[in-house]
């Protein structure tokens, strides 16, 4: 799973008050706390078992497309790709079209540029950032959604999720897939052995980590080889500590990365990243650990794994599914704890964008905006949709169901991933910008001022001053 960032954006997610953010975070906390029991893992095979429910009869109207061929590009791999192909297969069945999945490289906007330069753009691409949508529009690559797709989107999505797919007031993106990126997953047996409870505040998280450490298990697994995991850590701390207004300002580079609020967030992060033996393998080990391994090593080895907790979004369930651990029993989850007044609610997502303005491409966008399409992948696990018309009972376990319900209930009360709103050179390129500076900071968390200076220099260059 990757939700990297690209070009500059001005995503129009609705600004929320602290009270609204607190309500959304509270709903999530209540939902997750209520989960338990022996649940299926998130990597189900898509049978009717997961949740036992089927989607209602189709409500989306699609044209007949016999003989038409389409290409869909996305950076998805492994289980995520295979599950999405099942959604495309149903589209083929309903329309008669033939759809080919084209594996893309990250950052996808560069991949698309090479395809377009070669005269072979895909019909539709799944873009993991609002910034990528804007760049595609600015370059004249993306095509506005047609009437049917826009209608389907309006019926099934909150205004906030519609708005982040807009550029210049026109609808370009269908946020088919979402991510709740304010979750910490933990090995239930490790917590039980340590006598640790699910924390609600940052101080309680540090106390739980100390208890896990004292029990003989390293507290945290960090996938530092993938710089985007580190930006997600920062964003949750920053949103909770600095508040949504500052978050929006920093996301647009209206305040500098040398601002005291950034210093506070980095100093807070250092309380974990800089604590000796709190990160599996230390900084050097974390920087060699890719995201999937950061998950599997938390839930492999019974009650003596390499780490007791791993931070990342709901999509962690796909990787948990590669182990013997079961979500809801062996692998449990709590909302990212409040660092400031309220707990953070950070979201990401992948939007379907049309690159060939054909009847078939527009039909596929309409399909992906429907509850029928999202319901297929929701049943398969490791997937979250902002589509409010989905029957939540299709999700394969109670944990995923409650996360999905909380996301829909939050409406527009969330913040989109900050690095996904940044120019690609700053927020979404391996070995550069924010990814690289936070990797360096993980290695040397005492150098807060140095990290701030480097972040600001790179941001200023990427944003154009």
From TrEMBL:
Residues annotated as signal peptide: 1-36
PROSITE patterns: PROKAR_LIPOPROTEIN
Pfam families membership: SBP_bac_1
Region named Disordered: 39-62
Keyword line: Signal, Transport
Entry superkingdom: Bacteria
Ranges annotated as biased composition (Acidic residues): 39-48
Family affiliation: Belongs to the bacterial solute-binding protein 1 family.
Protein name: Secreted protein
Originating organism: Streptomyces lividans TK24
């Amino acid at each position: 799973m990757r939700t990297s960032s690209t070009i500059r954006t001005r995503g129009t997610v609705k600004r929320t008050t602290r009270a609204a953010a607190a309500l959304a975070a509270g709903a999530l906390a209540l939902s997750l706390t209520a989960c338990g029991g022996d649940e299926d893992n998130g990597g189900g095979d898509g049978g009717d078992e997961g949740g036992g429910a089927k989607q209602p009869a189709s409500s989306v109207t699609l044209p007949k497309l016999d003989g038409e061929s389409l290409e869909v590009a996305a950076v998805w791999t492994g289980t995520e790709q295979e599950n999405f192909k099942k959604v495309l297969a149903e589209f083929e069945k309903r329309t008669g079209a033939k759809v080919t999945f084209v594996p893309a490289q990250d950052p996808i906007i560069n991949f698309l540029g090479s395809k377009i330069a070669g005269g072979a753009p895909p019909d539709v691409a799944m873009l993991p950032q609002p910034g990528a949508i804007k760049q595609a529009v600015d370059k004249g690559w993306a095509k506005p959604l047609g009437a049917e797709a826009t209608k389907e989107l309006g019926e099934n999505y909150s205004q906030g999720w519609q708005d982040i797919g807009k550029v210049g007031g026109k609808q370009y993106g269908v946020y088919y897939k979402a991510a709740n990126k304010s979750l910490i997953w933990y090995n239930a047996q490790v917590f039980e052995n340590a006598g640790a409870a699910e924390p609600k505040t940052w101080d309680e998280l540090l106390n739980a980590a100390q208890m896990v450490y004292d029990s003989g298990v390293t507290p945290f697994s960090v996938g530092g080889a993938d710089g985007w995991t580190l930006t997600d850590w920062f964003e949750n701390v920053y949103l909770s500590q600095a508040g949504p207004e500052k978050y929006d300002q920093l996301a647009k580079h209206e305040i500098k990365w040398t601002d005291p609020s950034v210093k506070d967030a980095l100093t807070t992060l250092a309380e974990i990243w800089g604590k000796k033996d709190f990160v599996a393998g230390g900084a050097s080990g974390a920087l060699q650990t890719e995201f999937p391994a950061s998950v599997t090593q938390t839930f492999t080895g019974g009650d003596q794994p390499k780490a007791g907790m791993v931070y990342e979004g709901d999509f962690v369930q796909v990787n948990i599914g590669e182990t013997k651990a079961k979500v809801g029993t062996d692998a449990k989850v709590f909302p990212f704890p409040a660092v400031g007044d309220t707990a953070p609610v950070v979201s990401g997502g992948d939007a379907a964008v049309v690159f060939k303005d054909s009847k078939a491409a527009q039909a596929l966008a309409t399909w992906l905006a429907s509850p029928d399409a999202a319901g297929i992948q929701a049943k398969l696990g490791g997937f979250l949709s902002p589509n409010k018309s989905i029957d939540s009972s299709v999700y394969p376990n109670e944990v995923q169901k409650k996360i999905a319900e909380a996301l829909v209930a939050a409406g527009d009360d969330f913040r989109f991933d900050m690095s996904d709103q940044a120019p690609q050179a700053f927020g979404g390129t391996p070995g550069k910008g924010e990814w690289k500076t936070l990797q360096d900071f993980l290695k040397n968390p005492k150098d807060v001022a140095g990290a701030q200076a480097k972040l600001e220099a790179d941001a200023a260059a990427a944003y154009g001053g």
